[in-house]
Write a structure and sequence with these properties.
Arc Repressor Mutant, subunit A, two-stranded antiparallel sheet, 73% helix, 12 helices, Tetracycline Repressor, domain 2
């Protein structure tokens, strides 16, 4: 993008226009911006927007605070970027799995595997997402856009719930499943995966689990949850 600049010549005193070219970001600049975003993601997910400190983000990214403000003008702008990134990691693969033509049992197993695998790597993510939306309700639309790559709920609902409804109706007609609304089916399934991570500190305290014990708890849940969920829907 070019920006016009004016100057007066010494000989004529007339104003001439010159151009100054704004150079494209270099690989080094992109790497710095990515390191800042990686560090911000980690700090915001662990501490939330209110508890995050720019000094900690700068230290984790190994840059000075002036560079944070150069790439992301304010803490709020950086928080929005981190939140969008977090949202984009939470549900897209699940939405694709549920909207597919795979058999219902395979969908359930796939969603459980996707959720537990990802949340085991990012255990603070559900608590962060829930907390941010609770304190900043306006971010719900940003979360939806990040999860669906810009699609609206009106775009997503027919794809996800339409596919589920057809499969559920077929199972119910065959006498293989009790009736359930596709919305309840989806919310129940995802909640069973997310809740242990969202409530991890509370569960660890109640169940007397340390970090390794919680990992074993999730491993057992990975084995048991598919049959538990499908068994609860059998007539």
């Amino acid at each position: 993008m070019k920006r016009l600049k004016t100057k007066k010549t010494e000989k004529t005193g007339k104003t001439e226009r010159t151009t100054k070219t704004r150079h494209a970001p270099t690989a080094r600049n992109r790497d710095t911006e990515q390191r800042i975003l990686d560090a911000a993601h980690g700090v915001f997910v662990r501490r939330g927007t209110a508890g995050a400190r720019m000094q900690e983000i700068a230290a984790d990214a190994q840059v000075n605070q002036a560079l944070l403000h150069y790439y992301f003008r304010s803490k709020e702008q950086l928080a929005r970027a981190a939140f969008e990134r977090a949202g984009s990691q939470l549900m897209p693969a699940v939405i694709r799995a549920v909207a597919s033509d795979d058999p219902l049992e395979e969908k359930v197993a796939r969603v459980i595997a996707l959720e537990l695998d990802h949340l085991s790597r990012a255990p603070y993510l559900p608590g962060y997402i829930i907390g941010e939306v609770a304190h900043h309700p306006e971010r719900a639309q940003q979360l939806i856009a990040a999860m669906t790559h810009g699609l609206t709920p009106e775009d997503i609902r027919p794809r996800v719930f339409g596919a589920l409804k057809r499969q559920i109706d077929a199972r119910v007609a065959a006498g293989a499943m009790r009736p359930i609304a596709p919305e309840s089916f989806m919310v129940n399934l995802v909640s069973l995966c997310i809740f242990p991570f969202a409530a991890r500190p509370l569960l660890q305290a109640i169940l007397g689990l340390d970090g390794a014990g919680f990992e074993r708890f999730i491993a057992r849940r990975r084995r048991d949850l598919v049959e538990f969920f499908l068994g609860a829907l059998r007539p």
